[in-house]
Amino acid sequence: RRPGRTSDSDLRSFEWYYWGRLCHSDLLTVPAHELGVTALALSRYGRTIYTNGDYYLRMWDVATGRQRAIRTGPQLGVAPLPFHDGGWTPQVVMSPDGHTLAVVSENEVALVDPVTLKPRARIAANGRILSLAFSADSHRLVVTDGGVVVWDLVGQHPVHGACGQRRRGLL
Predict the structure, then answer these.
(1) Which residue in 22, 63, 98, 152 has a CA-CA distance of 20 to 30 Å to 160?
(2) What digits encode the pLDDT tens for the residues 54-68?
């Protein structure tokens, strides 16, 4: 029994603390967004977590658990970040080299600097973006919006498209 007042004795024994440590061995618990966390990315060296889900991109320090930054879609150079619905969740993806963070707005991808969260580029799609992934060398980004388009991030142009309509482009 947990003591209700400071004068009460604590009846919890070894097992209480043992199981408590086993069940709560996490390194960090990020406070939930107002509407919940639906997407996250971890920085290359594991020092920063990026979360999305309530119309905001949030950047968290893993060591302290403190929120370092918060951005809206327009601050990232894209339309407002949407809230997830039952069948779709906006994504946040870190490139393998750790130099680019991709943040999905309904039909756009913001490519931002993961340290400053300043926008570098924007990829426009023809429909709701369903998925995206970086190549292992971080030079290409695959975007699905009903079709599949592979973007060359170095030359900033699409290199391959399949089953999709004409692409709007990298802006």
Answers:
(1) 98
(2) 888 999 998 888 999
Whole-prediction pTM value?
Answer: 0.76
In the chain, which residue ranges form alpha helices assigned H by DSSP? 14-23
Whole-Å CA distances, 140 to 1, 116, 151 = 57, 22, 5
> Which residue do the tokens 């327009």 mark?
74
Pairing assessment for the beta strands 148-152 and 140-144 based on DSSP bridges: antiparallel
**Torsion sign (Cα): 15, 21, 24, 25:** negative
Token pair recorded at residue 75: 């601050």
Tokens 């995206």 map to which residue? 132
